[in-house]
Amino acid sequence: MRTTHPFVVDSADSDKFHEECGIFGVYGHPDAAAHTALGLHALQHRGQEASGIVSYDGEHFHAHRALGQVGDNFSSESVIGSLRGHAAIGHNRYATTGGTLMRNVQPLFADFDFGGFAVCHNGNLTNAYQLRRQLVRRGSIFQSTTDTEVFVHLMAFSRGGDVLDRLVEALRQVEGAYTLVALAKECVIGVRDPLGVRPLVLGRIDAPGGKPGHVLTSETCALDIIGAEFVRDVEPGEMVVLTDEGVRSYHPFRKARSRFCVFEYIYFARPDSVLEGVSVYEARRQIGMELAREAPVEADVIIPVPDSGVPASIGYAAESGIPFELGIIRNHYVGRTFIEPTDRIRHLGVRLKHNANRSLIAGKRVVLVDDSIVRGTTSQKIVQMVRQAGASEVHLRISSPPTAHPCFYGIDTPEEGELLAHKHTVDGMAERIGVDSLAFITIDGLYRAMGKPGRNPLQPQFCDACFTGDYPTELPDRDEAVKQPELSFLAERTAFGRERRVRRG
Ligand code: AMP
Questions:
Q1: Beta bridge partners of 111
Q2: Which atom of ligand 1 is nearest to the CA of 407?
Q3: N or C: which end of the chain has fewer CB within 10 A?
Q4: What's the pLDDT at 218?
């Protein structure tokens, strides 16, 4: 879910967008809200800024939304106790900077003539601004600045008879990446966009009375936490409906070739999750092995940049035969550095977060392995720290190709001009970061590590737009912003212009 700006924007009200999210839903269990809170806790890495749960008890909907982490907001008995019912959905929201508005915290809820409807979204729409503008002209009054609200207004204008017809009609009008979990009176609904950019899995959970309940979640790690059994991935373009009768499946969209986000494997998903039949940990380890074959270096020790560089480092060490050591220790009580709002704080954040294990580094030729370079701030600081700890050489190996393009599908990336790989060649990056050598896995190496023969340029098997610039959908909002840069409220909508100040339209 990413936020958009209302047609007329007040700068004081302007929210920052850029989110990844975690979504979860349960149908058919008396402790639906408690399970949802646990599921969201397991999905906390996908969003730390805010979370919310909406439940339904057969008569009333109940909601609780709050800024902050799941444990802070959903651990009290009184909160969980107030979220009564056999069905619930929940959402974790991730945003890079402050300015969060409570009214953007999901699940969103609306009253329709067919009854209440709550929805959570992971992904990002690429035509949300355009749809929003049309909807506002038709009379919609938006309550939030999130693109997710577009679904609700499109459903309100739909002539479809029931909730499913209306949702499908709305979804046929949107472009981009969306994985949804929604709650209506008789059901919990899960949908993946036709390209299946973001993950969604279906599970089953034992329930008192013998009839099992069903679960939808972004990642399998959230099934493990509640002891639910993995059933299958929801397919790209599939809508599943969980009811008292079990699970119904529909394919309401034109069939497309799947383009699952490869960055989920590289960085975003938890390594104990299995997505699309592939273990995230194993994918990272294979990428590390491939990286060692593509970019070997003579060295004494392989050191991961924790935590995200660990599985790839294990692979690199296994393939190269060079010992693996935890030469950098991470303080787990600090959030991800990337989410700090300004460069000054970001620098400080890295020092707060990592420390060198000197005895493992002094006098050694070190290979550092990390998953990605975005702005380069983390790498610069870590390299400096490793040199100060006495390394004789520092080589950096990255388990993704250079991140040279922004993501428009729900993973936070800074605008293009801030991406180190957009501004510099690999040699230029090495110089800025201060390493003796720098290498990234190649795009074909990445595909090989993922078990493919290489990247099929005509029909790429994944979405890899952040590395290749090959976006699998149209980008109407971005294109309009580029054509009309004077519309700063529009430019802010895209990763290209997001830092600009908002002017009144
Ligand atoms: P930077 O310091 O800007 O180069 O950030 C790079 C670090 O941020 C890498 O070590 C990644 O582990 C992490 N990272 C990469 N992409 C993201 C993202 N979308 N959100 C949060 N952290 C990220």
A1: 116
A2: 19
A3: C
A4: 98
Same domain, 212 and 141: yes
Domain containing residue 361: CATH number? 3.40.50.2020
Q: Are residues 416 and 351 in the same domain?
A: yes
Calculate how far, in angstroms, residue 330's C-alpha sits from the geometric centre of ligand 1. 15
* Centre of ligand 1 from the C-alpha of residue 225, in Å: 26
**pLDDT tens digits for range 123-137:** 999 999 999 999 999
DSSP designation for 315 = H
pTM of the model: 0.91
**Contact (Cβ atoms closer than 8 angstroms) between residue 35 and residue 192:** no
Tell whether 478 is covered by a domain. no
Ligand 1 centroid to residue 372 C-alpha, Å: 6
- Give the separation between CA 486 and CA 488, rounded to whole angstroms: 5
Residue 217 has pLDDT above 80, yes or no: yes
DSSP code per residue over 137-171: HHT----SSBTTHHHHHHHHH---SSHHHHHHHHH
- DSSP letters spanning 448-477: HHTTSSS--SSS-SEE-HHHH---SS--HH
Instruction: In whole angstroms, give the CA distance from residue 205 to residue 27.
Output: 9
Give residue-wise pLDDT tens across range 322-376: 999 999 999 888 754 454 556 666 656 566 789 999 999 999 999 999 999 999 9
Show the domain range for 384.
Answer: 279-330+338-449
Q: Which amino acid is at 426?
A: V
227 & 96 share domain: yes
In angstroms, the CA 16 to CA 498 distance is: 8
Q: What is the secondary structure of 202-221 as a DSSP string?
A: EEEE--TTSPPEEEEESSTH
pLDDT for 18 equals: 42
Regarding whether 207 and 115 lie in a shared domain, the answer is: yes
End position of a domain, from candidates 449, 465, 489: 449
Q: Which residues line ligand 1 (CB under 6 A)?
A: 267, 305, 308, 336, 338, 370-379, 411-413
**Number of structural domains the chain divides into:** 2
Q: Residues 6 or more apart from 310 whose CB is under 8 A from it?
A: 271, 304
Task: Report the CATH number that the domain containing residue 211 is assigned in CATH.
Answer: 3.60.20.10
In 3D space, the residue among 126, 151, 76 whose CA is nearest the CA of residue 474 turns out to be: 126
Q: Answer with the one of 411, 426, 449 that is the final residue of a domain.
A: 449
Query: How many residues does the structure list for the chain?
Result: 505
Nearest to 65 by CA among 120, 31, 107: 107
Nearest Cα residue to 386 out of 262, 263, 299: 299
